[in-house]
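May I ask for a single protein's sequence together with how it folds?
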Amino acid sequence: MDNQIIHDPIVPAAPVLPRNDPAGFPSLPPLPQPAVFDPMAPAPYDPMADAQHPAENPGVVSDVAAVMSSSINHTTIGAPAPDTITLPVPVVFNGVLVRTGRVRELTGYDEEELARAANSGIPERMPETLLQRGVVALGDTKPSPADLENLPVGVRDALLLAIRTATYGSEIHFEKLRCQRCSKDFELRYDLDDVPTTSLDETVPAVVSVALRRGGRAQARFATGADTKAILAAIRDRQINRAEQDTILLARTLTSLTDAHGAGIRLPNGEALDIARSMSMPDRSAILRALEDQRPGPRQEDATVTCPECEQETEVPLSLDVLFRD
């Protein structure tokens, strides 16, 4: 009883089909009859009759290339228009006071050069390559590698951020950013236009002026890429400590010294290191602090956001390897 199949008398066993009645359908057209061969009829057109093999006629290859070239519309990817930025501090370039710079989007050619720089083991190669490849002009003139090295660090940082924005856009996406206060991870989209920036609208070379502890005054220019390169080379070659790094920076950036009576102290290049070493520790710290506090340009180290977990400010890492990843 359990295995018995009960047929529903209302449902047909198969779908209802039309009657097998040829008269109920419209007549079909007659099948085509095979053509009768006529030996006197002209031969049909053969498109391959005049074909030639390249081995027999080498000129065929160039003929085909010419036809293809004339029949295909060639397209090229135009270079994007360079982006113009206002420099955070004017610079003298080729004897002209320059307040703007132009940068462009990086390409695959640039990416290959950046990969070589990253694999060199020399940290300063990366910013050097980025600037050399991405900066189109300072004012209206293309700068040389030496020109870019001698720019103030803040101007170089502004150009690097502009190159990043031209290449990837101003927004940087962190899938997981760890809060430095509560150690919780959260997702963040940060706009690089929000990076704190200091601008100086004054004549150049811009300098800082610092009153010394026992009277007198020191003036120093802002550090350049060349200064940073010299310090990094000394760290790599001689493993110098932080105090020695400060000595090199002071020796390279001091532009004038006066004593308590207003008399100028000579700063020859050969003795600048000794003069920097002979200064008191409070005076050295005051000059270095002024150089940092008044430094023009973007301050990536001060970029912060509010953590959604603990509602406290936490840092946004904006190193070069973070900025130039897709």
Observations:
- The mean pLDDT is 83.
- The chain has ten helices and 13 strands.
- The domain at 207-295 is CATH 3.30.2220 (rbstp2171).
- The two ends are 71 Å apart (CA to CA).
